[in-house]
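# step 3/5: fold
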Amino acid sequence: MILALSNFDMNSLVVGIKFLLGLQLVIIAIFLFFNKTKKTDTPLGLLCMLLGLWFFKRIFNGYWNEDLFLFILIGPGKPIFIGSFLLFYFKSYYQNLKRPFILKHITIPFIYYLLIVLFRFFLIDIDPVFDLNLSFFFSLAALAIFWYYFIITRYELNQTVKSHIIPRAHTKLSVLFFSVYFFLLQVPLWDILRNLLQSNFISTFYRSKLEFLYHSIFKAFGENLAYGYLHILAYVLFIYALSELRFFKNFFLPKDVLLHQNTFKDLKKIDNLFRNYFLLDKNFKNPQLTIEICAKELSISKKELIDYLKITKKGTFKELVNAHRVDEFKILLKQENDLRYDMVGLAKECGFASKSTFYRVFKDTEGITPKEFKALVFDKKRN
C-alpha cells in the first residue's frame, strides 16, 4: 500500500513537472506570437510551441495514440523540426526569410514527419519485425537530419550572424544553440541502440552483449540522463525566450544588437584610422573630445564607431580615451625635462579637464594615486 502510494506520488510529480514545463513554453510562445516586435519572434515562438506541445506527449499518451489530429498536435516526431526553426531564428536576426529558403528547410523534416504519420497510422500492424526495422531507420534518419542542421546552423551562427550582431548577443545565441543540440545529437543514438537490440540486424551472440551494456551502462548513464536533461533544456529555452520579450530584453542586452553593415567589412580600415587618430595624432589630448567628434573626423558614422569598440573589446569610448590619457601622463612624468611640472598641469596637457576627474580615473586604472605613482618614478630616478 505504501509502495503503491509512493509510486503514485512520484508518477504524479513527474507528470506535473512535464505539464508545467510544456505549459510555460506554450504560454511564452503565445506571447512571442502576439509581441512580434522583431523578425526573430515568430521562429523563436514556433520553437517554444513545438517543444512545449511535445512535453504533453507522455501525459496524454492514451489519447494521441489512436487519434490522427491529437497525434499531430501532441504526438512524437515533431522535434525533427527544431533544426529548421533554429536555423530560421538565427538567419532572421539580420534579414527577412525568403520563401524558397523556408520551403527548402521545411521540406526535409516535413517528409520525415509525414512518413512517421503514415507509418504510425497505416503501416504499424503489417509485421512486428518490419515495424522494428523501420523504427531503426527512422532514428538513423533523425540523427542524420540533426547533424545536417547542426553543421549548417553552426556555420551560419559563426560566419554570418556573428558579423551582424554585437559579441554579447552572439554569445547568447551560442548558448542556446549548444544547449539545444546537446540534446538533439545524442537522443537518436539511444533510440538507434534500443531499436538495434530489438531488430534482426545483429546475431544473438552480439545482441546479448549489447543488451548487457545497454541495461547496465548506456540506459542509466546515457538515455536516462539525456531525457532528464530535456527538462533543463525546457527551462533554458523558457528563460531565453523570456529574455527576448521587449519588457525583459533590456535586462540582458542593449536595445540595438545589430552591427552596422560596414563595421566588419571596413574593420581593418577603421582600425588603422583609429590607431593613427589616438597613437600618432594624439587627439585624446582634446578635453572636449566626444565620440561624435571622433566619428566625424574619422569620416565614419557613430554607429560604426560604437560597433568597432564592441567587436574589438576596447571598452566604451570614454574608457578608451581616459586610458590613453593616463598612459600619456605616465610617459610625460617619466621624461626628465617634464619632472618640474606639477601633476595637474601634466594631466590637463594629456586631456583631463579637471583635477578630480584625473585623480579618480588614474586610481581606477592604475590601482594607486597619481602621487604614489610619482613617488615611484622619483625613487627609480634616484636609484
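# step 4/5: annotate
The first helix runs from residue 2 to 35.
# step 5/5: archive (pending)
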